Amino acid sequence: MLKFIKGHMESIDGIEIYPIISLLIFFVFFVVLFLWVISANKKYIEQVSNIPLESDEEENNTKL
């Protein structure tokens, strides 16, 4: 099965650029994500990480 796909893909002109493009897209995405994580405002991260806990506290307070 894989030999059939490989043989078919080799017959397409210019197909070798697609793996390179996809690798570059994913590499750039993860580099940008890493840079955002490093430079993110710590107060914002703390506020966002407490959102699930705040909603649980509000539900418990309304039940009392």
Gist of the model:
With 64 residues, the chain is an all-alpha fold.
Describe this structure as you would to a colleague:
The protein is mainly α. It has a domain at 40-64. The termini are far apart. The model has no long low-confidence stretch (mean pLDDT 84). The chain is 83% helix and 0% strand. It contains 4 helices and no strands. The longest helix has 23 residues, at 17-39.
Q: Count the beta strands.
A: 0
State mean pLDDT (0 to 100 scale).
84
Radius of gyration: 24 Å
Count of DSSP H/I helices? 4
Strand proportion: under 5%
Largest sheet: none
- Terminal Cα separation, in Å? 63 Å
Q: Which spans of ≥5 residues are poorly predicted at pLDDT below 50? A: none
Percentage of residues in helical conformation: over 70%
Q: What's the helix-strand series? A: HHHH
Shape: elongated
Secondary-structure class: mainly alpha
Notable features of this structure?
64 residues, 4 helices, single chain
